[in-house]
Design brief:
Number of strands: 47
CATH architecture of the domain at 1130-1210: 2-Layer Sandwich
Strand order of the largest sheet: 2-4-3
Number of helices: 46
Distance between the termini: 38 Å
Largest sheet: 3 strands, antiparallel
Shape: extended
CATH superfamily of the domain at 1130-1210: K Homology domain, type 1
CATH class of the domain at 1130-1210: Alpha Beta
């Protein structure tokens, strides 16, 4: 038996108790602490420890984020919500925290302790955390305020620069500090925040004020003229006093005319500085006198010296202050101030410094300056280094170099410069070349290649003006020989570019791709060969044969010749000849299996294309070289000749008649061929001058065609005699006459045809006459007589009233130019402006002069017969009448040959508008307006009332012939806008306007009217259309058509809005919808209907609504009912399966259940989680399929439950024996999870402890005794 001293150990203490929770120290054993240097009995080697410390300090990086934790006591909380459960509740303080988090980009966590104090943790960037904390304290913690009296002169030190110091203080103390404005005249500073923050802020502010209270501030009134004596030479006095006293002395700069000196700093220092300053001031005020001297303004800067050193030297040497007038002043008087006996030496120094620098000029042309300076200033630097006190100035545009400095050095520098200039003049020259600016970029070349090559070859400098200078002058500078050579090369380039020409070559478009080659290889070779020539092919879509060559004349000609040869080679190898073979014989040409045609192709090396069977053409096209094509054609024609009674006849017709017999586009010869049973008539090819024409076909048809062809040739030969006459191109217009009257007379008189050259013909003087021989001879005599008369130059005179002269010479002599073109280039001279004469001189051939006289007289008669007519249209409609940019008026003036003058627009305050085109005060003429025509306004009546005279601004003046003026007036009046109204249903308005007004704008633009639709708020159905009457009528018709269209669309919508409802059990709705809506989508698409199912909150859960055409809705209803009927025939069985098996049946993402439903063709529904009976599964489908599916589910359940039973038995075997009641079994209790006792969460955290809540932004020395956290076995 144990004694009292013995401790009896309980055996249960040695046994494992699963129900007893582990201690925190057992569950989470503490980590071993790293020993610190010098701590503990086992010390690391000092060197090793020191090395670790050095490296750890070197690699330490401060985090960019930080965390702050602070507590708001319960009594200071603004929101005392004691029933809150977590931060997630939408309480007032939670909303405030969310706003602060979003605004400052930080994370905030709050927790409420048992004593109802609020702990806030803020994490984020340092600056953002400070701002967020200030906002939280201001909005979640009750605020107090206090007033602190601080002298006003200390306020600026509390604010700091730009208020930065005050902002930092507010962030640090979490308070709001209000400092009075200067105009408020108050010393009180208001501090608002928590009590702790207010105390901190008061402390900091008071410290700043106390520091400033120790300082003094003095403003000394000392006249500006005595400041140099106080400062001393180079501010020696000021520097000395600052070093001795530590005070700050603020002297106004020389440019500021202020008579005060400010001294700040410690009181003793300020007083000492003040005494020194006032002592000097009183002494100088008593002893100083002044003397004034006149010194040239240009010499002042030498007296002052660099950075004022000259004045300081005089002051240091003599004690005299030198006052020099400002640079912007024109005064030349310099004042010396100092003691009487020292003014003389000072004056001597002033004159010495003034005369220490002289000026000299070296004559040198501007273009030589850069060569005198040298590359990077090397030449002039040698001179300035040799004569360090000399300043050399080069001025743009001045032919001189200014040298400034001491007399002896200036003289030497001038000699150096003159020698340099003389040397440059002896070996340098320049010239200027006038080359058109459009050639400059070509002279420069790509990336400056051309100009660089010339510079390198000649060693000259070439200056080409920029495009903005608009100058043609290119300047060349350098050695004379190089300048001459460069000039010649530039002139040669310019001449070559001036000689550039453009030439077109006709190349069939089918050859373009071959000439260009694959990926442009062929054309690249040609361009490399003729690199100065630009070759431009037409766009393939234009189907043009013109290829343009541009470049130097010789190169263009060479390239033209080369491309012509290339084309000829291609034409030679692509010669085409059509062969007319009767359609019935095409199969014989092809042969069995294509043998015949293949043989001909191989023997002649040609391509033979036959028309398709459904093509009625009988033409076989042969392509290849000419000789090969002729051989193939002969073989094919021989085949036809052997197969049929084909005769071939040869007729001789002069070659010059071939084109006239063929006719335009072959019409004449085609008519003969068709008339003679389809014979084939073949003329010689182009370029062949043979007279033989071959006729092939049946014998009778050939003879008939031969007869007709010979008759036509005889007729053409008799009427195809040709003669030629030469006349100057300027005579052609006169020979033709106005409207062709002259040449028509010649044709009618002689019966011959006269052909003048076109603008594309090379022989511009050659006139051809065609017809019978006697007619041609007669026409030739007539034309030669007219030309002879034109060659006789005469001078004629006529009188034209001076009032009409302006009409002829206006618009740069347009009327005179037309007369000269029309009448053989006659010269018409009117008197000069200012000469009062009506004499007009006409020079030219006699007939041309007479014709010009008649024409001028006709124009004068028209001008005399012109009348002026007024057309009254209200001024507000003038812009509408003019049209866009005056298009309407320009059309009227062109159609009726009249002049139309609009009055000037009225301007406010009576100002007159003078446009650039009408400076003479006239209005806008002939529709010459600038700008768009605005939408017309609602017009008033077209003319004023009968008893009211029209306003001047409403009168449009029309000038011209009477009948033309009347027609023009009618045309103008038809353009006057009118207003017409029509009624359109209110609900149509938005459709007429269109999206963002697009439709109505299109209609207004299309009909040139303004359509005014009333605002929607007025519910008015009247629409106004404004514009010219014809346009208004068209617009109203268009609106009516649009309304009819909308009516039809509305009827269509009403028909399509038929609704049909059917009642279907809501449990069947998913079946009708189908998987992912497949079934219902197909019904909607098949019948073009809208099918709507009820929402869950609706009462009628069984109603399905179908919208569409009536017949379509009925068809959709039938489809739905058919589906319902199929499902109603199915059976539904309840299958009880343990709910623990349901996840296995469903499978991952429903894979297993979909597989089972597809396998047994059934539908299965599982119970909800909140249902009373979670084991029931509903199976729907055919009876047999449902039974099979039910058996399968029960088998799965049986297998699963067997596994569960086996697992539970194994768990029972592994359970420890019960400690209750003699080893009896206890009722099982639900598991409680993993339990740990005495964890740190069981007690309120000490947020002020730096050990438990270490700072994340700095290194905290850990407790060397143990790691952070509880000790083993839960002891703290």
């Amino acid at each position: 038996m144990a004694t009292n001293e013995e401790v009896v150990r309980n055996v249960d203490a040695e046994a494992y108790d699963p129900d007893k929770p582990q201690q925190y120290g057992e569950a989470f054993p503490p980590l071993a602490s790293a020993p610190l240097f010098g701590a503990g009995p086992k010390l690391a080697h000092p060197a090793v420890a020191m090395e670790k410390t050095i490296w750890s300090n070197k690699m330490t990086m401060k985090t960019s984020t930080c965390t702050q934790v602070f507590t708001v006591p319960m009594e200071e909380r603004r929101f005392k919500e004691f029933n809150e459960q977590s931060f997630g509740d939408e309480t007032d303080q939670a909303k405030i925290c969310k706003e602060i988090m979003a605004r400052n980009n930080v994370s905030i966590e709050m927790s409420c302790a048992k004593d109802q104090s609020l702990t806030v943790v803020i994490h984020g960037k340092d600056q953002h955390v400070m701002k967020a904390r200030r906002e939280i304290v201001g909005r979640l913690q009750t605020q107090a305020n206090t007033l602190l009296k601080i002298p006003r002169e200390h306020h600026r030190f509390i604010l700091g620069k730009s208020g930065k110091k005050l902002q930092d203080l507010e962030l640090a103390t979490q308070t709001k500090i209000t400092i009075p404005r200067p105009e408020e005249n108050s010393d009180m500073i208001k501090i608002t925040g928590t009590k702790e923050g207010i105390d901190k802020a008061k402390h900091e502010i008071q410290i700043t004020s106390d520091e400033q209270a120790k300082l003094a501030f003095e403003r000394l009134p000392v006249p500006k003229v005595y400041h140099p004596f106080i400062c001393g030479p180079k501010n020696e006095n000021i520097k000395k006093w600052i070093e001795e006293t530590g005070a700050k002395i603020h002297m106004p700069p020389p440019s500021v005319m202020k008579d005060e000196i400010v001294v700040t700093g410690e009181v003793d220092g300020v007083l000492k500085c003040k005494a020194n300053i006032m002592k000097i001031y009183e002494e100088k005020k008593r002893k100083c006198q002044t003397v004034s001297v006149e010194v040239r303004k240009s010499q002042h800067k030498y007296i002052i010296g660099p950075r004022g050193n000259g004045v300081h030297e005089i002051l240091a040497a003599t004690g005299v202050s030198v006052e020099v007038p400002p640079v912007d002043s024109s005064l030349e008087t310099i004042t010396l101030r100092g003691e009487q006996d020292k003014l003389g030496p000072a004056l001597t120094m002033v004159y010495s410094k003034a005369n220490s620098v002289v000026f000299a000029e070296v004559k040198a042309q501007t273009w030589l300056h850069k060569y005198v300076i040298g590359r990077q200033g090397a030449n002039v630097r040698k001179i300035t280094e040799q004569f360090s006190k000399v300043h050399i100035e080069f001025t743009d545009g001045a032919d001189k170099i200014v040298v400034e400095g001491p007399p002896e050095e200036v003289e030497s520098a001038v000699k150096e410069l003159e020698a340099a200039v003389k040397d440059l003049q002896s070996r340098m020259d320049f010239t200027e070349v006038n080359i058109d600016q459009r050639f400059h970029k070509h002279i420069i070349g790509k990336s400056g290649q051309n100009i660089t090559r010339i510079k390198n070859a000649t060693g000259v400098s070439i200056k080409i003006p920029s495009d903005t200078e608009h100058s043609n002058i290119i300047r060349i500078e350098g050695e004379p020989s190089g300048v001459i050579k460069a000039k010649e090369e530039l002139m040669e380039m310019a001449q070559r570019m001036e000689n550039e020409k453009s030439r077109d070559i006709l190349i069939e478009q089918r050859f373009h791709r071959s000439i260009i080659g694959a990926r442009g290889e062929n054309i690249r070779e040609i361009r490399d060969r003729f690199n100065q020539v630009q070759i431009t092919f037409p766009d393939p879509g234009k189907k043009s044969d013109i290829v343009t060559l541009r470049g130097p004349k010789t190169d263009v000609d060479k390239c033209f010749k080369h491309l012509t040869q290339v084309q000829q080679d291609m034409v030679a190898s692509n010669y085409q000849a059509p062969v007319h073979i009767f359609k019935d014989f095409h199969k014989n040409i092809i042969g069995k299996g294509g043998a015949t045609i293949r043989k001909i192709r191989e023997e002649t090396n040609t391509r033979i294309d036959l028309p398709s069977e459904d093509n009625e053409s009988d033409v076989i096209l042969i392509t290849g070289k000419k000789a090969d094509v002729e051989a193939a054609r002969a073989q094919i024609e021989t085949i036809q000749k052997d197969l049929a009674n084909i005769k071939e006849a040869v007729v001789t017709i002069p070659h010059k008649l071939h084109n006239s017999i063929i006719g335009a586009k072959g019409r004449l010869i085609r008519s003969i061929m068709e008339e003679c049973g389809g014979v084939i008539i073949r003329f010689p090819t182009e370029g062949n001058v043979s007279d033989k024409v071959i006729i092939r076909g049946p014998t009778a048809d050939v003879e008939n065609a031969k007869t007709q062809l010979m008759e036509l040739a005889t007729e053409k030969q008799q009427s195809s005699f040709t003669a030629e006459v030469r006349a100057k191109p300027e005579y052609h217009r006169f020979l033709i006459g106005r409207g062709g009257t002259n040449i028509r007379k010649v044709r009618e008189k002689t019966g011959a045809r006269v052909i003048f050259p076109s603008s594309e013909d090379q022989e511009q003087e050659l006139i051809s006459i065609i017809g019978k021989k006697e007619s041609v001879d007669m026409a030739k005599i007539e034309l030669e007589g007219l030309i002879k008369n034109l060659d006789n130059i005469v001078e004629g005179e006529m009188n034209v009233d001076p009032k009409h002269h302006r009409h002829f010479v206006a618009r740069r002599g347009e009327v005179l130019r037309h007369i000269a073109e029309q009448y053989g280039g006659v010269t018409v001279s009117f008197p000069r402006s200012g000469v009062k004469s009506d004499r007009v001189v006409i020079k030219g051939s006699k007939d041309c002069v007479e014709g010009a006289k008649k024409r001028i007289q006709e124009i004068v008669n028209d001008l005399d017969s012109q009348v002026t007519m007024d057309c009254v249209i209200l001024q507000q409609h003038h812009r509408t009448v003019m049209g866009t940019r005056g298009s309407n008026v320009q059309e009227i003036t062109r159609t009726y040959d009249v002049g139309i003058k609009f009055p000037e627009r009225p301007v406010a305050n009576g100002d007159k508008v003078v446009t650039e085109n009408h400076k003479d005060g006239g209005g806008m003429v002939n529709g010459e307006v600038n700008g768009e025509t605005p939408a017309p306004e609602t017009p008033a009546p077209e003319t004023p009332a009968p008893d009211q005279s029209p306003k001047k601004n409403d009168i449009i003046v029309i000038t011209g012939k009477l009948e033309n003026c009347e027609q023009a007036k009618e045309a103008l009046l038809t353009l006057v806008p009118i207003v017409d109204e029509m009624t359109i249903r209110y609900d149509f308005h938005r459709f007429i306007i269109g999206q963002q007004g697009k439709d109505v704008r299109r209609m207004m633009k299309e009909h040139d009217v303004n359509i005014s639709i009333p605002p929607a708020s007025e519910h008015c159905e009247t629409v106004k259309v404004t514009g010219p009457p014809a346009n208004v009528r068209r617009a109203i018709a268009a609106l009516s058509d649009r309304c009819d269209e909308l009516e039809r669309e509305m009827e269509e919508r009403e028909l399509k809005s038929f609704q049909l409802t059917i009642e279907v059990e809501s449990s069947l709705h998913p079946k009708i919808i189908g998987r992912r809506g497949a079934v219902i989508s197909k019904i909607r698409k098949d019948h073009d209907v809208i099918i709507q199912f009820p929402n869950r909150e609706e009462d009628a859960q069984n109603t399905i609504t179908i919208t569409g055409y009536e017949k379509d809705t009925q068809a959709a209803k039938d489809d739905i009912l058919k589906i319902v009927q199929e499902y109603e025939e199915m059976v539904t069985v309840e299958c009880r399966v343990d709910h623990r098996v349901h996840p296995r049946i469903i499978g991952q993402r429903g894979r297993n259940i979909r597989k089972l439903m597809d396998q047994f063709k059934v539908d299965m529904r599982f119970p909800r989680t909140d249902t009373d009976d979670p084991d029931v599964i509903f199976i729907t489908g055919a009876e047999e399929a449902v039974e099979d599916c039910q058996d399968h589910l029960l088998n799965i359940e049986e297998e699963f439950l067997q596994d569960v039973i086996d697992q539970e038995a194994m768990q029972q075997l592994t359970r420890p024996p019960s400690k209750q009641g003699g080893g009896g079994r206890r009722n099982p209790e639900p598991p409680q999870g993993f339990l740990v006792a005495n964890g740190p969460w069981d007690s309120v955290p000490d947020t002020t402890s730096t050990e438990e809540f270490p700072s994340f932004g700095a290194v905290t020395a850990p407790n060397p005794g143990r790691a952070w956290g509880p000790t083993p076995f839960g002891k703290r």
